[in-house]
Amino acid sequence: MEIIPIFAPHLTAFRFGKTDEFHQLFANWNDAEYLFEFFKRHEKDLQSDYYGSITVAEAVRRTRRYALQFENCIEKLSSNLDNVFTPLRELEGSHLPRSKARENWLRIYAIKVEANIYVVTGGGIKLTRTMNESPHLKVELNKLQRGRAFLKEHGISDIDGLAELIIPQ
Q: What pLDDT sits at residue 92?
């Protein structure tokens, strides 16, 4: 596990494999083939009362548009990320709370280190009412837990500690 700068020092991301989680999300959300396959697998969720009846093709178009808006928003507010991220749950603890940013059904999950300092652990397309209703979002909950445990294991409690773990790009 490595931490990569995105919009340093405010936004960083875990890299569990070859690509960091932030860039992997936006690569997926801009890949029409990836999105088509994703929405075909989750087509029943597109037909639910939660989002109404949306075709796979329309879901792909919307997602690519949402991704562009989302990335622009994060870039513009990169030094004021507390306006983008909110606690994952209302009663989230104060030390390294799990957080989310959203643009319609797109989600980015991160650990908040201190005010306006976040480490992205992953994200996804949320088509159900809760994360626990989607196997692919349960994976994201696990990555949030792993990321949080990693930061705690390394004694991270502020930007100074986090800076020591960031791998320069």
A: 62
